[in-house]
Amino acid sequence: MRIVIAEDNALLREGLSLLLSTEGHEVVAAPDNGPDVLPALLEHRPDAAVLDVRLPPGFRDEGLRAAIEARRELPGLPILVLSQYVEETYAAELLAGGAEGVGYLLKDRVSRVDQFLDALHRVATGGTALDPEVVSQLMTARSDPLAALTPREREVLSLMAQGLDNATIAASLVITERSVSKHIGSIFAKLGLPPSDSGHRRVLAVLAYLNS
Amino acid sequence: MRTGRAPRNVLPDMRPTLHHVRDATVYLILGLRTALPALLGMCLLPYALFLLVVLVVLLPWLPFLVRPMRTLANAERRRAGRALGREIPEPYPELRGTSVERSVALLRSASTWRDAAWMAVHGVTGLTMGVLAIALVPGILFALSTPLWWWAAPEGSVSAFVALDSWPKALTLPLAQAGLNTAILVWFIPRCAHWQARLAEVLLRPTRRISLSERVEQLTETRAEALEAHGAELRRIERDLHDGTQAQLVAVALRLGLADRRFDADPAAARTLFLEAREGVEDALAQLRSVIRGIYPPILSDRGLGGAVRALAAAQPIPVTLDLPDADPRAPAAVEAAAYFVVAESLTNIAKHSGASHAWISVRRDGPVLRLTARDDGKGGADPARGSGLAGIRRRVAALDGTTSLDSPDGEGTTLTVELPCGS
Fold first, then answer.
1. How high does pLDDT run on average in chain A?
2. For the whole prediction, is pTM greater than 0.90?
3. Please, what are the domains in chain A?
4. A60, A61, A85 member nearest B289 (Cβ)
């Protein structure tokens, strides 16, 4: 894949480049400040972009703004946003333009290289990757209606909202895919969501529900 | 911050209404209650001073001499303060030391001499104005009734400007006199009353120097509290970093060192240690995030106070109505951090304890003050003594010289108001 990285910390930028090139990806541009991000994305039109939220010169949320702007200019451009801390509000802003090809993860997650690459791959292929912390913030805010779910169903919902598919959910909970499907059916029924099988539409429904 | 009482301003408004003339007359007549003792004190003062100076041994008794004067001045402060609708504070600095030192301090204190000056002026003018106020109304009645009986009085005993000896004079001059008296009553008496009250205010209030030194004392006190709170905050952060993050990283380094030693002999064990080390780093990062959030929440520097409060509101399980200014209410970083903490903590309290179905948050910059209000429609009855949430808010606000007030009647919801001075 051709990838654009925006990260102001040199160590982290080198680390990410190394990690991605070792995996056979090509880092086509690596801007280290906010104003350079959007032009780089528009010029290279990468298969995926990995953006830090806080960038020079303002050290506020330049990366996030660039991501939203870029997706307005190039709808569907896969963007994975990394941050030292996660805010539900930022997730909501990112997802407002559609959840396809959007990721929002804590920077810490790069330490689990496999999961990080999997998330990047998911985003690049039009999927979603939301940090478990964001999902738990979302679920806390909607704790009342979620009280009807069993603990296992809440676990499944959380993993589903992170953007994982049935197979991955089944693997991480050590249950069969069949029982994952059963749980999902039950969750949709309890929350009053229309049943849907397709992965992305399902994540969208869940996120829209949590985010409402 | 204090809110001023609504002034009940009686005297300065001098519309010549019956109401004001009556109030002014009563004020001046009651002024005799301080004017007469003041006159007496004024007469005694030279003797007292003479005695003190000549017989220096009497000096330690000066405080006993000053005390009645202060009692009198305090009575006048209250009386004039009520009439002017603003409090006249006592100017007396606290006395310390031996009785001689206290006496010397009293002699050097401006307030002693200003009290004495007031006593002299009020003794004379207060008596004059009081007598005038007593005499005016009967004088008017007397003059108006004169035409009815002047002819029966002994010749030359009744006069209005001049002795009355003919009907034309008796029918006009007393009326003129009554008119003059009425004019004095309506025009002059309210002015006298106002002047008397202002005299007390000007001479008996603290001088600018004393007010400033009191303010300095108060600021020194709050500054000491703020430093104390700041120190406690630093110690808390140090403890969090030292016992949490730092210890965690040491453990990680240890595991990596062990893994390094075992790498060749036992790769499987080394791998387990690597994985544990990674978990340790993740924990350390999570702890660091929470420490940073406690120092200065990152969203504040990203989005300002308005954006940060919006993010908090969006994360609540119940609807929160926000009242934020259009322009972001910028304030010093410490104030913004405290404000964010207050809003976060009150929203947590509302969600946890109030049983409310709706909450309202208002953040307003009101001149030099940032005012926060958190209101809910829950069950009320919040007790600041219980629960660490409210106590924490109070502490954090007090450290910045702010005030917290809680209104939580049973069954009628809770309103928390916090005011934080912004220093500009």
1. 89
2. no
3. 2-130 (3.40.50.2300), 136-211 (1.10.10.10)
4. A85
